[in-house]
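User: Let's play a game. I give you a shape written as tokens, and you guess the letters that built it. Ready? Here's round one.
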């Protein structure tokens, strides 16, 4: 098992491994997040890229923790925006289905009235 304390020590090989792991995780979060609205996703990807770019060789462990926190905050914000966008799209689709159902019902009723009304008139003549 790898110890975090060992990874945070001044061992340069461990520092390189830690930096690589953190960078991979940050980039993976950016690549595999749900898209949502295009401008929100672009803003999210930009903040993730900035965090990944800030991971330089001589960064302190405290700064790595701050960057990890900022990535989590960006992910939380992005997920909240994506969820809201999805809810709005779902509500819009539900309203469209209601309108379509009402229209089909009205057209069907009018067609039935025309069919049965026409038959009753022709029998009466």
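Assistant: Ready! My guess for every position:
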């Amino acid at each position: 098992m790898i110890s975090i304390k060992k990874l945070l020590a001044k061992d340069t090989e461990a520092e390189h491994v830690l930096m690589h792991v953190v960078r991979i995780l940050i980039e993976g979060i950016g690549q595999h997040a749900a898209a949502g609205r295009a401008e929100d996703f672009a803003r999210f990807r930009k903040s993730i890229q900035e965090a990944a770019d800030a991971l330089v060789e001589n960064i302190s462990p405290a700064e790595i923790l701050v960057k990890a926190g900022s990535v989590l905050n960006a992910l939380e914000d992005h997920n909240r925006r994506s969820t809201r966008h999805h809810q709005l799209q779902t509500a819009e689709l539900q309203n469209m289905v209601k309108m379509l159902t009402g229209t089909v019902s009205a057209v069907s009723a009018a067609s039935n009235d025309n069919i049965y009304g026409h038959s009753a008139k022709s029998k009466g003549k």
